[in-house]
Design a protein that fits this description.
By secondary structure, the chain is an alpha/beta fold. It has 23 helices and 26 strands. The strands form 8 sheets. The chain has a 6-stranded mixed beta sheet, with helices on both faces. Helix 5 links the parallel strand 2 and strand 3. The model has no long low-confidence stretch (mean pLDDT about 95). The protein binds beta-D-glucopyranose. Beta-D-glucopyranose binds next to loops.
C-alpha cells in the first residue's frame, strides 16, 4: 500500500480503522454535495442524518463558516466515531475576491503572481470554513470548441506544468496544518482536455507517446509539487473510464509517480461508468475502488454497494482500508483531528474575505492577464479627455465579469466596465453608454449561455432600435469602446460550441459602429480562443479581457487608459476558423511540410485549399503599448555535455515610448530524433520590466534535462545530436542558434 511506505500517521490511522464498522468505513469514502443544508436547519436535513450515521466523509458546495461549523458539529457530537469532515469547494480562480478565469491568469506568465492568487484564494476560503479545493485544473487543451479550455492554462506542456506547481504551492503553502492553507486537488486526471470534436465528456483516444510527452506532464508537475489529492476525469483512457482505470490511478499515478495522497472521482464519475457500458452499479463501484479511486463524489456507489462486493469476495477489507486510510491521512495532514473547528472561526470572514487589499491585488492581476491583440496607429492608450461611447451587451453587466466556475463569487459585486471606466477616466471624460444589442439573436440560445444567475436581461426593443440608440451616442463621441464577445457561461463545463465567432448580432452591431468612421476599440470578453478574423481585419484596436474577475471594469480601464501597459501573452492559439482546430504551435513537421514561409497553398503538401496553416494569433502572442527589439542571441558553447549546461543570452530593448513588461520566450527544437519531434517546444520564459529606451541582457540555462522526452519505449531520455534554440516575443521567435548534445 503506497500510503504506508512513508505515512507518518500510519499508527494513528490504523488504530482508528480498528474501531470502525464496515459501514463507517464506507461512509468515509462518501462525498455528497451539501444538498438541502441551510443554516439553522442543518440538523433536520437528509445529509445531516447521514453524517450522524457516519455515512459521510466530506461535503462540498457548502458555503459560509457558520453553516460549516454547524455541520462539523453534527459529525463531532452526534456520529459514533466523531471523525471530522472535509469541506470541499471549487475554488478555481479566487474565492469571493475573484481573479481572471484560469486561461486569462495563465496569460500573465507570472508564476509569482499566480501562486499568490492561489494563496489568497486559500486565505479567503479557509476563513469561510473550506479546507479542500478542486483546483488546479491542468488539462492541456488544443481545442477551443471545448468550453473548459477556459478553466485551464492553455495548450502548453511546459507553461502548464509551471502553473500547476505554482497553484499547488499557493493553496497548500509550506504547512498544511496552518489554518490558512488547504488541500489542493489536481484535475481532471487524465486527458480530459482532449475530447473528440471538442464536445464535453466525449471519448478521448490518444497514443501513449503523446500522453507521456504532452498531456500527462502538468498533472505530474502537480504531483511532484506535493498535491494532496487527484480527481479522476470523466473520460476514458485506452477504453477504460479514468475512474475505473487501474493503469492510470495506480500503476502510473502511485507506482510510477509516487503519489501518496487520495483520489476522488469527479461528480457521479462512478455511476457514469454504467452509461459508459462497463458494468452495473455494484460492478463499476468495485472496479473504481480496485482501480484506485478512494472517494466517491455524489454517486454513493461505494456507500451502497461495496458491502455486497465485500460479502461476495469481490473487494477485500484491505482494499477498503487502504482507501479509508488515505482519507483519514488527509484529515490528519491538515490537523482536523487536533482541532475539527480550526477553519471555523466566525470572526475571520469579515476580516479576511473580499478585503480592500485583496481586491486591489485582484485588480492588478486582472490587468496583467489582458492581451492586446491589435493596436493600429497606437489608438490605445486612450487619453483621459473627450467623449467616449461605451457600447455593447457586456459593457454594463456585473454578473458576467467573474466568468465561469466562480461559485463563491458574489457576482453582483463585480465591477462592470461602465463603472470602471467612469472611476478611472476622471472628470475630463464624458462617458456615454448604450447596450447596442442583446447577446444573441436567438432568445433560446441566449438563455442557455446566461445560466446560473448570470443573465444579461434581454432588452425588449428591436435589434434596429438598439443599434440606433448606439449609433446616436457613437456619433457624439470621439472614440467608441465596444464591449462584446462571450457571456460567462458560454465557456466552462458543458459549454462546447462548433462556432468560434462572436455571436452574429454583436458582429452586426460592430459593423454598424465601424461604419461611423470613428475609431473603435473592441474589448473582447471570452473564455476561449475565438476566430475573430473579421474583427482583426476591420477593428483598429482589440484588447482581449477574458473574464477578468471581480475587479473587471477597473482593470480594463487601467489598461485602456494606459495606467497599466498590457503585457499578457496568449497561452492558446487563436485559429482562423473552426476548421483549423485542433491547432497548436508545437506540432510535428509531417513528411510533407509546406515549402514556403509565406504559407501559400502547395498541392500535395500538408495544408488546406481554403485557409492557410497559420493561426490568427500564435501561442505566446501579445502586444504592448511599447515595442521590444531582440538581438544578439548567443550561446556560451555550441556543445553540451551530459552533466554540463549552456547559457543562452539575448538582448532585449524597449524601443518604444512607454515602460513595459515583456515575456521573453525560449523554444528548443530537437532536429533529429529516434521518433518525430515537435517543430519547437517552450523550455523557458522570463517576464521582465524594461524602462523606455532600456536594454537588458536576459539569460537562460539549458541542460540535458531540458532536452529529454519519452521515446518509443516510453523511456525518458535525451538523444545526442543537433538542437536549435529560438528566443523571441512569441512562438514565431526567429532568432536562432544551434548546439550539439554530445554523445
Ligand atoms: C466538474 C469538476 C468539479 C466537480 C465538483 C464536476 O462537474 O467536472 O471540475 O470539481 O463537478 O463541483
Amino acid at each position: 500500500m503506497a500510503q504506508e511506505t512513508n505515512n507518518p500517521y500510519k499508527t494513528k490511522v490504523d488504530s482508528i480503522l480498528k474501531l470502525m464498522t464496515l459501514e463507517e468505513k464506507l461512509g468515509q469514502l462518501n462525498l455528497p454535495s451539501s444538498g438541502d443544508i441551510t443554516t439553522g436547519a442543518s440538523q433536520s436535513s437528509n445529509v445531516a442524518k447521514n453524517i450522524e450515521d457516519g455515512k459521510v466523509g466530506g461535503l462540498f458546495n457548502i458555503k459560509t463558516v457558520a453553516k460549516i461549523k454547524e455541520v462539523q458539529k453534527i459529525a463531532m457530537e452526534k456520529s459514533r466515531m466523531k471523525i471530522p469532515l472535509l469541506f470541499g469547494m471549487d475554488v478555481i480562480h479566487g474565492y469571493e475576491t475573484t481573479f481572471p478565469i484560469p486561461l486569462g491568469l495563465s496569460a500573465s506568465w507570472d508564476m509569482e503572481l499566480i501562486e499568490k492568487t492561489a494563496q489568497m484564494a486559500a486565505q479567503e476560503a479557509t476563513a469561510d470554513g473550506i479546507n479542500w479545493t478542486f483546483s488546479p485544473m491542468t488539462d492541456i487543451s488544443r481545442d477551443p470548441r471545448w468550453g473548459r479550455v477556459s478553466e485551464g492554462s492553455g495548450e502548453d506542456v511546459y507553461l502548464g506544468s509551471r502553473i500547476a506547481e505554482a497553484m499547488v504551492k499557493g493553496y497548500q503553502g509550506d504547512d498544511l496544518t496552518a489554518n490558512n492553507t488547504m488541500l489542493a486537488c489536481v484535475k481532471h486526471f487524465a486527458l480530459y482536455g482532449a475530447p473528440e470534436a471538442g464536445r464535453d465528456y466525449n471519448t478521448v483516444d490518444m497514443s501513449k507517446i503523446r500522453m507521456y510527452n504532452e498531456y500527462l506532464q502538468p498533472y505530474r508537475a502537480a504531483v511532484d509539487a506535493g498535491v494532496a489529492s487527484v480527481m479522476a476525469s470523466f473520460n476514458e483512457i485506452d477504453g477504460v473510464p479514468a475512474t475505473g482505470n487501474k493503469w492510470l490511478l495506480t500503476d502510473l499515478l502511485r507506482d510510477d509517480w509516487g503519489f501518496n495522497g487520495f483520489v476522488v472521482t469527479d461528480y457521479t464519475g462512478i455511476e457514469e461508468m454504467i452509461y459508459h457500458g462497463i458494468g452495473d452499479f455494484q460492478e463499476v463501484s468495485a472496479r473504481a475502488l480496485l482501480a484506485g479511486s478512494d472517494m466517491d463524489m455524489v454517486s454513493e456507489g461505494f456507500l451502497t454497494t461495496l458491502k455486497a462486493s465485500y460479502d461476495e469476495g469481490k473487494v477485500s477489507m484491505a482494499d477498503i482500508d487502504q482507501a479509508v486510510g488515505r482519507i483519514l491521512t488527509a484529515k490528519y495532514q491538515i490537523g482536523l483531528f487536533d482541532d475539527p473547528y480550526k477553519y471555523c472561526d466566525v470572526e475571520r470572514p469579515a476580516k479576511e474575505i473580499f478585503t480592500a487589499e485583496n481586491r486591489a491585488f485582484a485588480r492588478k492581476v486582472s490587468a496583467e492577464s489582458m492581451v492586446l491583440l491589435k493596436n493600429e496607429s497606437n489608438l490605445l492608450p486612450l487619453k483621459k479627455n473627450g467623449t467616449i461611447a461605451l457600447i455593447g451587451p457586456l459593457a454594463n453587466n456585473a454578473v458576467n465579469m467573474a466568468g465561469t466556475w466562480s461559485v463563491a463569487t458574489k457576482q453582483e459585486k463585480s465591477i462592470p466596465l461602465l463603472e470602471g471606466l467612469k472611476t478611472v477616466a476622471g472628470k475630463n471624460v464624458k462617458l456615454l453608454y448604450a447596450k447596442g444589442s442583446n447577446v444573441d439573436y436567438d432568445l433560446e440560445y441566449e438563455k442557455r449561455v446566461t445560466m446560473f444567475g448570470k443573465d444579461i436581461p434581454r432588452d425588449g426593443r428591436s435589434d434596429s432600435q438598439l443599434r440606433e440608440e448606439a449609433l446616436a451616442i457613437a456619433e457624439k463621441s470621439d472614440v467608441i469602446v465596444a464591449a462584446l464577445g462571450e457571456t460567462a457561461e458560454l465557456s466552462g463545463e458543458s459549454s462546447s460550441v462548433t462556432n468560434l465567432q462572436i455571436p452574429q448580432v454583436q458582429k452586426d452591431l460592430l459593423k454598424t459602429l465601424l461604419k461611423t468612421g470613428k475609431p473603435v476599440i473592441l474589448v473582447l470578453f471570452t473564455g476561449r480562443p475565438l476566430a475573430i478574423v473579421d474583427e482583426n481585419e476591420n477593428v483598429p484596436a482589440i484588447l482581449n479581457a477574458w473574464f477578468p474577475g471581480s475587479e473587471a471594469g477597473l482593470a480594463i480601464a487601467d489598461v485602456l487608459f494606459g495606467d497599466v501597459n498590457p503585457s499578457g501573452k496568449l497561452t492558446a492559439t487563436f485559429p482562423m476558423n473552426v476548421g483549423q482546430v485542433p491547432i497548436f504551435y508545437n506540432h510535428k513537421t509531417t513528411g510533407r511540410p509546406l515549402g514556403n514561409k509565406e504559407g501559400q497553398f502547395q498541392k500535395f503538401k500538408s495544408n488546406y485549399l481554403d485557409v492557410r496553416n497559420e493561426p490568427l494569433y500564435p501561442f505566446g502572442y501579445g502586444l504592448s503599448y511599447t515595442t521590444f527589439k531582440y538581438g544578439n542571441l548567443t550561446l556560451s558553447s555550441n556543445e553540451l555535455d551530459h552533466n554540463g549546461s549552456i547559457k543562452v543570452s539575448v538582448e532585449v530593448t524597449n524601443s518604444g515610448d512607454y515602460d513595459g513588461k515583456e515575456v521573453v520566450q525560449l523554444y528548443i527544437r530537437d532536429v533529429v530524433g529516434s521518433v518525430t519531434r515537435p517543430v519547437k517546444e517552450l523550455k523557458g520564459f522570463q517576464k521582465i520590466l524594461l524602462k523606455k529606451g532600456e536594454t537588458k541582457s536576459v539569460s537562460f540555462t539549458i541542460s540535458e534535462d531540458d532536452l529529454k522526452f519519452y521515446n518509443n519505449a516510453l523511456k525518458f531520455m535525451a538523444e545526442p545530436g543537433a538542437f536549435q534554440v529560438f528566443v523571441g516575443t512569441d512562438s514565431n521567435a526567429e532568432l536562432m542558434q544551434e548546439f550539439q548534445l554530445k554523445k
